[in-house]
Amino acid sequence: MKRLVGVAVTALLSVSVCFTAFGAVSTNASPWAVPYMEQAYSLQLISAPLLQQAQDTITRVEFSEIAVAFYEKTTGTTAPVPKDNPFSDCDDLAAQKAYALGIIAGTEPGKFAPENPLTREQMAIMLVRTLEKSGVDMSPYAKKNPFTDTKNINAVTVSYIDKAYGAGLISGYQNGTFEPKKSLKVQEAVTAFLSAYTFYESVQNGTAVPQGDAVMAKTVTINGKELTLGQTAEEIVATFGEPTRIDETVFGLDRYIYAGDSYFWITFENDVAVEFFTPSNGFQYQGIQGGTVLNDTSRVDSISNVDHSAILNGEYASARIPLDYENQICGLLLQTKEFAAKDALTGSLSGTQKNSIEKELLEIINVQRKEAGLAVLTENTGLDQTAAAHSEEMVKEKYFDYKSKDGKTPFQRMMDNKVQFHTAAEVIATTRGDVVQLYTELLRTPAKHNSIMDSTMTQVGIGVSNDGKTLYLTIDLCNA
Fold it and tell me: Does the pTM exceed 0.85?
């Protein structure tokens, strides 16, 4: 967040940027993976060198290092070291510890092959073994995986994949495959281990639900009316009336926007509702009420340390409840299990899709402001142009910063576009995903959330650009 008071002294002011306690951390990760790498580093699951190898293929020895760090952190003990090194080609201490724990085996007698890439099936095995060695019984969470390419592999390996899948640690590809023999990047492996860590926490605090007992409601109540995933567009319209408009999403699907008393939307795939989202307080789901504070009695499976959302997983549906930094419930994202597991994002966004994202995000922000008793923000053409140009430049020049490549501050860019203001602020964010992911980026950081909720701000401009499936967002605000 950047803010300026007094246009006349723009060049004289130094404005600080607020980040989430990772100022000294540097990583070459893809934008979507940066928060995952930073979080893993803060939890001491990965070492500093891995931060600069995020886009490299992860090796067997590197994954062993993460597994051992996970074990030692969760158990509070030091992993044992074999009396004699069992490998002639590897003297790495973490590899020996992982072998002694039974997390990983050699490739052949006396050989570890430390630099060999780790495959996805090996990752699933090691994730499960690490959790089991950390004291988690994974058997109750096993669920038959739906992947089309795991039917003919070793039954023991499949049993590990079933446990990892049932616990929500792994997912497949859009075409229904798992690609067990495919190697993976460091950032992908780290993301999987963060999921394992979140799962471990949920088991420890008693909120993890074994698959056999998981009954996840696929119905949400909004404004006293029920909406159920799996309903057709015709059934939705019969209950809620015609939508305010229909947007085209980053999934290439139709999204029905309802901008009435309680703002919400439904995304349809093959004329069936696969996603529901609301930032409004007017929902009830699984005993959770919008606008309240999440507490220890709320029925959730876990809290994501990455995007600070409460997570509920079940047989049919997957729910994420965005939380602000004070644990205030700020909406509900409910998706069918199949849709949530897909990587269905479009890698190339049209102008129409970008406009939809910008419009939806402004509506979400204004819902938050209205429910907090604040005046809604109005669009300013100059701010729109300023925000859009900055997001586009960050994508084109491959950087993420408030200051432009030519050294201009947000406030100088606003003035270049003839924006007149008494006070102004800028918020930037980047994430892989959709509008909801941008929204959670704004919620979880106090500086960013406080900027969009600033009662003195009256006008706004929002610009979104994309680098493949990663979105770059700039929000410019001012009080004219």
Answer: no
